[in-house]
């Protein structure tokens, strides 16, 4: 079964639009499709975007909100503002390499040209090819820092390919080990005391660029747990009110509304959970007529902890090879 066939099956069963993350989870739970890459949710989202953009009203799918997809339904009205979808530069690059490269490296300028032609990306910049190169380069570097194998590999002279084209080797074994460690770190987070967990989040926020981080007095009442100011380049300063949820079940819409109602003047919200968010919660968080509430799920939380060396230690391994000098 193809990705889109699997998505069609899930949406037909659901009888309502779903967020692409929820769609992916259901597809994998029912074993309708076996992904080869490490980011199946990105593949599902990208495939839906390509199908809708290429086929238009002939597509079996429709976009009903940010990341929300359903089946074409004559009885459902789709707002014009959400009729089209675009991808991030890295997701678009992955889709181009998967569908149009014949499993051969492509130059970043060609990747950009194809992504623009397919309307996978939208940019007002004058040099989208430079943005494409930068985004892929930093994806490789960021994943290396997190102990992951990037979707991409740099092959020199501006050419990029996909790591999944290669046979599993040492890199795969390293990633397997690191994924096991990530799962253990996640379990450790779930076992922490609430106040201890909030302090950990405060330390993480400081590490990723927050200033004046203050962990509020623990009361267990579901209010704001951490306050701070997100600083970007010593120029942009955004006051943030953070609620943390050390939960195993998904965070739903009422929590988003509760956080929004607890915000002070000129504050934006952020919810960090060890679990994930429901489709309704994601839609509510991005509601255009309300103060934005950013969402960080358990996978993102673990990745940021590792990226900032919190709760983990790194080991170095040396590989030996024969010298060209004879014995």
Folded structure, characterized:
With 327 residues, this protein is α+β, with helices and mostly antiparallel strands. It has two domains: 163 residues, no CATH class; 118 residues, 3-Layer(aba) Sandwich (Trna Endonuclease, Chain: A, domain 1), CATH 3.40.1350.10. Helix content is 43%, strand content 17%. It contains eleven helices and eleven strands. Strands 7-8-9-10-11 form a five-stranded mixed β-sheet, sandwiched between helices. A three-stranded antiparallel β-sheet has the order 1-3-2, with helices on both faces. The longest helix has 21 residues. The termini are far apart.
Give structural attributes.
alpha+beta; Trna Endonuclease, Chain: A, domain 1; 2 domains; five-stranded mixed β-sheet; three-stranded antiparallel β-sheet; 11 helices; 11 strands; 43% helix; globular
Q: Layout of SSEs?
A:
Layout: H1 3-14, E1 18-19, H2 20-29, H3 40-55, E2 61-65, E3 68-71, H4 89-100, E4 106-107, H5 108-117, H6 128-145, E5 152-154, E6 159-162, H7 170-190, H8 194-207, E7 210-215, E8 226-232, E9 236-245, H9 253-261, E10 267-273, H10 279-285, E11 293-296, H11 298-307
Parallel strand pairs: 9-10, 10-11
Antiparallel strand pairs: 1-3, 2-3, 4-6, 5-6, 7-8, 8-9
């Amino acid at each position: 079964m193809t990705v889109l066939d699997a998505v069609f099956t899930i949406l037909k069963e659901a009888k309502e639009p779903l967020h692409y993350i929820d769609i992916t989870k259901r597809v994998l739970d029912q074993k309708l499709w076996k992904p080869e890459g490490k980011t199946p949710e990105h593949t599902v989202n990208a495939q839906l975007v390509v199908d809708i953009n290429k086929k238009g009203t002939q597509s079996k799918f429709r976009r009903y909100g940010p990341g929300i997809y359903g089946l074409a339904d004559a009885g459902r009205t789709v707002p014009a503002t959400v009729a089209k979808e675009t991808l991030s530069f890295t997701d678009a690059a992955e889709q181009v390499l998967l569908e149009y490269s014949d499993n051969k490296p492509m130059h970043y300028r060609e990747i950009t040209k194809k992504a623009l032609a397919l309307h996978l990306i939208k940019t007002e910049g004058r040099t989208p090819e430079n943005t494409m190169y930068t985004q892929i380069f930093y994806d490789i570097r960021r994943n290396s820092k997190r102990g992951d194998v990037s979707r991409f590999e740099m092959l020199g002279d501006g050419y990029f390919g996909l790591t999944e084209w290669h046979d599993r080797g040492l890199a795969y074994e390293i990633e397997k080990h690191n994924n096991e460690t990530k799962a253990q770190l996640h379990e450790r987070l779930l076992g922490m005391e609430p106040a201890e967990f909030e302090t950990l989040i405060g330390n993480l926020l400081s590490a990723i660029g927050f200033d004046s981080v203050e962990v509020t007095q623990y009361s267990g009442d579901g209010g704001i747990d951490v306050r701070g100011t997100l600083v970007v380049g010593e120029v942009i300063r955004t006051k943030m009110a953070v609620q943390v949820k050390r939960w195993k079940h998904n965070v739903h819409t009422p929590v988003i509304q509760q956080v929004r109602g607890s915000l002070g003047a000129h504050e934006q919200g952020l919810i960090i959970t060890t679990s994930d968010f429901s489709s309704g919660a994601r839609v509510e968080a991005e509601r255009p007529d309300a103060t934005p509430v950013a969402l960080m799920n358990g996978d993102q939380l673990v990745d940021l902890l590792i990226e900032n060396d919190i709760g983990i230690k790194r080991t170095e391994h040396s590989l030996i090879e024969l010298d060209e000098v004879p014995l």
